[in-house]
Amino acid sequence: MKINNRVRIIAISGDGSAAGKTFAASVFAQATFSIASGIRCELQRLYPGYQWSNREQSYKNTTLVKEYGGGRHTVRGVLLEYGQSKCRTDPCHWVSLLGDQIAHSLQIASGIRTLAIDDIRKTCELDHLRQRFPDLLVHLHVASPTAVHEPEFDAETLKAKADYVVAWHKD
Hints:
Blueprint: E1 8-14, H1 21-28, E2 31-33, H2 36-46, H3 57-62, H4 75-87, H5 93-108, E3 114-120, H6 123-132, E4 137-143, H7 155-161, E5 164-167
């Protein structure tokens, strides 16, 4: 498989939820991909009455999914719990799917020089991408004092492994 080696893939991690990963992707890349896109597609099939692709924090944090877990989980909670359940047997389940999508896109893309993955949360995801796209990948970590820490993920380790750290400052 021939991939355009003039493309740069920016893998973006952050200090937690709402760190500014998606905003950084919009600043630094022409196209954005998400590991969670596979999760969102599956959940859209299972629970079609919800806006799984809505990235607004207020929607994800306040909308309850009535059909899941007795209606006690928010959209964010379902995304996290469902996504993690698939990773119990294969920690790289979602990033492997995304890698296939990116490889296909790079074969057919024209004019795209930078693309971003805006939701790296685990070291295994970063390691998988570095192995799959060794000459194309740059890892950027977004440090933000307003990020909501996610203890189930590897933010501190990812920050230490980053090629670059971008710090957002509260005005």
